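=== RUN LOG ===
request id: a7f3
mode: sequence -> structure
chains: 1
length: 1451
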Amino acid sequence: MISQRRLSKSENKESLTEDASDARKQPLSRKTKKSRVQNEVEENDSVFLKLLKTSGIILKTKESQNQLAVDQIVFQKKLFQILRKHPSYPKIIEEFISGLESYIEDQDNFRNCLLSCERLQDEEASMGTSYSKSLIKLLLGIDILQPAIIKTLFEKLPEFLFETVNSDGISVPRLIISQLKWLDRIVDGRDLTTKIMQLISIAPENLQHDFITSLPEILGDSQHADVGKELSDLLKENTSLTVPILDVLSSLRLDPKLLSKVRQLMMDKLSSVKLDDLPVIIKFILHSVTATDALEVISELREKLDLQHFILPVWLHASQSKLKNKGRISFSGNQENSGQDCVFLLFDVIKSAVRYEKTISEAWVKAIEHIPSVSEHKTFDLAMLIIIYSTNAQTKKYIERVLRNKIRSGCFEEELLQSAFYIHYFVLKDLCPSILSLAQNLLHSPDQSIILFGSLLYKYAFKFFDTYCQQEAIGALVTHVCSGNEAEVDTALDVLLELVVLDLSAMRLNAVFVKGILDYLDKMSPQQIRKLFCILSTLAFSKQHEGSNHIQDDMHLVVRKQLSSTIFKYKLIGIIGAVTMAGIMAADGRSSSLTQGKTDLSNEQYTQVTSLLQLVHSCTEQSPQASALYYDEFANLLQKRKLAPKVLEWVGQTILNDFQDSFVVDLCAVPNGDYPFPVKALYELEEYSSCDGIAVNLLPLLFSQDFAKDGSRMTSQDSDHKLVSPLCLPPYFRLLRLCVARQHNGNLEEIDGLLDCPIFLTDLEPGERLESMSVKERSFMCSLIYLTLNWFREVVNAFCGQTSPEMMGKVLARLKHIVELQRILEKYLAVTPDYVPPLATFDLETVDVIPHTSTAVSAKIRKQGMTGRGKKRKRGGNKTSSHDTLSKEDGSECDSTLPDRGQLEKDFKGKEEKTVALQNYHAFFRELDMEVFNVLHCGLVTKVILDSEMHTEATEVVQLQPPELLFLLEDLSQKVENMLTPPIGRRIPFLKSKGSQNIGFSHLHQRSAHEIARCIVQLLTPMCNHLENIHNYFQCLTAENHGIADGPGMQVQEYHLMSSCYQRILQIFHGLFAWSGFFQPENQNLLHLAFETLTNRLNQREPDQSLEELLTQSFYYLQNFHHSIPSFQSALYLLRLLMVILEKSTASAQKKEKIASLARQFLCRVWPSGEREKSSTPNDQLQALLGIYLEHTDSVLKAIEEIAGVCVPELINSSKDASSSTFPTLTRHTFVIFFRVMMAELEKTVRGLQAGTAADSQKIHEEKLLYWNMAVRDFSILINLIKVFDSRPVLHVCLKYGRLFVEAFLKQCMPLLDFSFRKHREDVLSLLETFQLNTRLLQHLCGHSKIHQDMKLTEHVPLLKKTLELLVCRVKAMLILNNCREAFWLGNLKNRDLQGEEIISQNSQASTADESEDDTSSLVSKSKAMEVDEEGEASDGEKEQDSDESDDKTD
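=== RESULT ===
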């Protein structure tokens, strides 16, 4: 070809890249020139020039534009007519083209022909457009010239492929190709396509790009398929043309199969493409997706698209700069800008696709939802969910559901979320409103893991986004805090607290929003108030930032206002706020994370702290409750935070002096006074000479308080003394010991005399005088015992951490005293029903139970000191402060606002003697710290007894006894239930508020559930020791009594103690392993440690065992205890414990069988007498245990048949008080429980059975039919039991679950009978005959309910009747389906009672006729069915019988 020859001539020419836009701008600039340059007009005798001139174009030479004298369309028409009518047509065409070729041999002429023509001024008015085409473009618009001109152009074009661009910036190849764009008509499209593709194959790369992108503007639709195929082949050969080719393919109308091939080719290359090409590739892939393959394509795309590979190198510098300078990111160099632009463009492509293509957005969410493995989830997945959430409002609920499921399953964790924000920061920052909206919705969830994820969204939005987004995040969090929802408030405050630590500077800018929460303090719990004041105090008193005086002023105003309130609720808020503020102000800057940059406390700061504390003291001293709360809050502060040494020293000195003046007296100074009981020093652990020791002055203080209550006259001398309430003794001591521990690194030698010192009491054992005591005296004794108990509890809290054997022995002795006092207290409470104890906890949760009392104390306070070994020491006279004196109380103003006493008396009213339960008084006992349970580690403790010369006089071995063990285990089980058991699983008594469940757990709630779980795991070893010891005890007891645990030689009290300990340990284990936090990945190590502990009890653990192996061994360790289970309740806890372990196992089949076996053994065991009849609770336990047995057994139907068909007849044939010999737990009293559980499990089982389809195999049909035969037989056995056991609860269960079973039969069994009737005639017939009798009995039960007019029973009758009628219709439909319609017959059923006797209201003669008709109807119908052709004979007979049965059921 000529083109090839000319190309070879220009091979050595230099190639140069130039923009096509420059070429297009040039003609316009030349056109605007108005000056006329005198250039010669091209003149010769060629046909080409003459024809052009005649038609209206004047050709110019050199750089002048060709002139168009007529309209462009007129020119084309004239030239076409001249050529068409020329005498030498079509030869004239060749001459014209030859002239053109000759003319354009000159490059200037060729360029002029390619550039737009210049219109003459007189023609401009007649032109419809200001745009003028070039000469070549005009000639291409003439059909008879187009093929030849195209051929000429393509022969001419190779000459310019490798030429440099002219000085005027015009690229001739681009100019030539532009002539072919947007032609009105292409004469020979196939030839043009061939020529262009040949040209593309030989052109340099810079022109190839332009030629390819011009294809959609040149070619017609008919050539799209051929071009698409050739471009796809070119794509495989030349990857550098990926972008223009894909861009063109997206614009062409192509076959879906071809697009699929190209898409797959691009998908395979995703990992190796350049970042610049990625947006176009992703756009092509998404635009080529169809509804059928969307999920498959998107799944593959998300799997192969590794955005971190592209984004991290580009944005690493930018993200680091962002973290240093919020919102002011600067890029250095064009490379970063280019890469950033490409990523923006990429996500714009994706956003556009998911916004406007519902198919793509839904497929993308489904692809993420169906990711099988946790490890396969990427940050891009999380970013995509957020993008789709923000762009598509219709899918928001769906995305939230997917997110929740992923969070629950551990697929989306904090690390992945943080990486998503870090990597996709520039994309997510534009979606801030959607992210905050998503976080808000997640915080409404009841699931703690989902709430945590929502809080992390707030946290990272604040951390990574700009100031505006930070403000929005804080505003949303404040809204959550003010919502009133407890979980939302806690989470939002936790996030705000984290943000204060994370970025204090940014938080200070939003302090005004946080400060607004102060208006909602009255709706917040004490723990939430603590968090809020901690946040505000940190913002106000951090020293590294100045300008916070306005926040400090507002804080002081709020605190002073609350403290001065006469309403206890608001005073409490002020106390918490002031103590928290003081803690932040006086925090030791060397150890506190909330006080970065703080130095040692200055004198001014020291004065502020001490003044604030003195203010709190002065505002609370008029109310014992407020004072006690202040001491407790201060103690909590010391426990959590380390104060500056200067403040700690001042506090310690003040507290120690006040405590010894208020509550401690010399032992030798036995108080004398008109006391109702003789005062004695009791509970002394070490013997001192009469003048050496100290004592706690309890009874005189309590008497003085009651003395003031009675309004007795006080002398002026007495009124000068400081008044002290014994209510403050435990909290004050707690504050004292924590302060001493802080000052001396945990050493309590300075106050260890308080552990063994006696208390001024009286003889507490009531003996025979109990009945003769007045109500006031009994109340006084109850208060005295309560205060003593709470004192001992705080003493145990204080000294349980001391490691010396002597101290541990004393702690054990105090525990023994606590148990003894509780026993005595129960005796007093049993005969004092209206008594309300003194409060022990004083936070906001207990305001509702504070009694209306007024307290005043009048007592002589001794001014002596106290030494570390139990002696009073003199205090320096110059060491005085406002803390040194407590002013007297004479009916506190706060007390007048407290609720009425009557409600409290109802809540805590004592019961009859021997039935009073101290757990009803739990709110009035001081809380035990978690550290107390380290006492469980104690074995034998050797305590040394010293003589007066400090020499060893004797040794005594002390051990934790069963009563003390039970005391500790009961308290621990309450803590586990409160912290680790979800609220749904806890039983909250009717009309009890949720807050009342947290009374007595204030200190516990200041720890996280994870901390509590870790403490329990550390206690597993000692608890296993105790469990094994108790197990051995019962094993030995059984052996001694020849296999009977409660034999004649049994000590009843000891037996019940050990049994209770057994139950509590299992209860604690169950609460621990049922904790939902173990499903969170961060707690997996703790679960592993727990199972390791249990596994080590069997044998030494092998290293590197998997969690499943440890779980299996732990399961078998625990199930070994079933031999010694002493009580039915313990048996239930053991099974529940094994079940929660089973939930965490991946291989559960064998363990499930073991649980069923154990449950059966427990049901078949004879339990100690009175165990089942004690209360209604054991009935619930029996129901739960029977449900566990039926749920875990291999065959529910066989188990039900055994109980109902074997055990119940044994019960029927036995005496009235006897039980079944097979299942001793089955008695006439418990029959209704067995009946209810069996009916419920039977209905649940058949409802879960799939109906099956006609396409199933014959074997499957037979198995399902056999299963339904067994189910109906069990149902028949159970239904017929109501003839013997016709009590109201049994009938109610029968009506309720009978209807549900018939509904399940309709939905699950009837479709099976539709296509099984012909092949299994006898089986279906037997099934329907049995079921007919059952439904008739249900009909009789309906009549019985109406006759007796029992509302509880009759409310089930309409629904049951309706279901029975539906069964009739369904049977008729089945007969019609099997071509046996004539076998259906409908009759009336007589009303009968449960015994089958006819109801009198019905006419007996008519009934007899109906009965005879009913009896023969099935035979007639059956005979009709037998007349059908032999193929359908069997099915018809069965169908007829079914219809007959169901007809009889409906009258």
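=== NOTES ===
Strands lie at 57-58, 67-68, 118-119, 664-666, 680-682, 694-696, 759-761, 940-946, 952-959.
The radius of gyration is 47 Å.
=== END ===
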